[in-house]
Amino acid sequence: MHALPRGLRWLALGIGLLWAAPISALGLVAGCAGMAAGARPRLQAQRHCLVFHGFPWGPGGAMTLGNVILDTGHTLERHCNTYAHDAGLCKEPPIAIGDHEHAHVLQTMALGVLFLPLYFSCGGVSVRNRFERAADRYAQTGQGWWPWG
Fold first, then answer.
1. Hey, how many other C-beta atoms are within 10 angstroms of the C-beta on 80?
2. What is the chain's mean pLDDT, rounded?
3. What DSSP string runs through the chain?
4. Is there a domain that residue 111 lies in?
5. For the chain, what is the domain count?
6. What are 7-50's pLDDT values in tens digits?
7. pLDDT bucket at 2, cuts 50 / 70 / 90
């Protein structure tokens, strides 16, 4: 997106935000519910999202719904293993959770309401899921968030 002129980048960002809005609305509802139990919202413009830190429900880690990240921790800068590493397929260095989740934000901005059905049809939260592998790749290299790349 950086190869585009500045005006076109803003237009593409605006279209992506609108295209992802129905899924982001689900994230906002969940995030606001989490605020009642202590979650704190914080805008992260560089990642095009609103993050709810200290989200009280879930197994740990973070989950992205559109332009909303529900984070059980207090910062997205902490590290975690890649899906392939945890599955024993290879040894890889840890990645930043925030970079992984940012890939899902970008995926949703590109695919809009198609993101969730495509994500789950590719295997859901699993090493087999091309969306998760692409998010891990993006967190490792800063490139390659598109799941069919």
1. 18
2. 95
3. -TTS-HHHHHHHHHHHHHHHHHHHHHHHHHHHHHHTTT-EEEEEGGGTEEEEET--SSSSSEEEETTEEEESSS-TTSEE--HHHHTTS-----EEHHHHHHHHHHHHHHHGGGHHHHHHHTTSSSTT-HHHHHHHHHHHHS---STT-
4. yes
5. 1
6. 899 999 999 999 999 999 999 999 999 999 999 999 999 999 99
7. low
Q: Is residue 125 in a domain? A: yes
Reported confidence tier of residue 107, pLDDT bands at 50, 70, 90: very high
Which amino acid makes up residue 101? E
Domain that holds residue 87: 27-141
What global pTM score does this model have? 0.94
Is 11 within the bounds of a domain?
no
